[in-house]
Amino acid sequence: MMLEKFIPDKYQKSVFTIDYKKLKLCGIKCIIFDVDNTLAPISAAKPSRKVKDLVERLKDMGFRVLIVSNASKKRLTPFKELLEVDCAASSKKPFGFKFRKVLNDYKYKVNEVAIVGDQIMTDILGGNRVGITTILVNPISTKDQIFTYILRFFENIVIKKAMKKELFTKGQYYE
Prior knowledge:
Helix content is 39%, strand content 14%.
């Protein structure tokens, strides 16, 4: 197993602690967000005011904001409408199809796109496989979809191996 494929480029506490100015200076033009437990708990039917304000601020900074999620179109519709962003539902992360589609459709280079998500096994692995900047955030809630609980089991194995090799430590945030 190539452990490096599971290691995020950046690790922050939440979407609100990321230094977006620094991302801009590094040439990032497009930020892809996961929804469940990244932007909102899975129990939330729509984005919070705080998330809406963040997305508006990012757009004002010149970022294109997109949502790429394994969730259904029905789940993403309120986020798409209220945040006024494009969404890709049922994305089958960690496979790179939707990430490559974003690069092609919006004419971005891999070094101009970042993915922000709470799961190493989907968001980080998927982004790393395509070569875009990966940013891991802590899950908002401990409540997950049933399939995510299974992925978190494997994620914890990866984290333990990464900690042994001093590649990653949960709770030690970095830019």
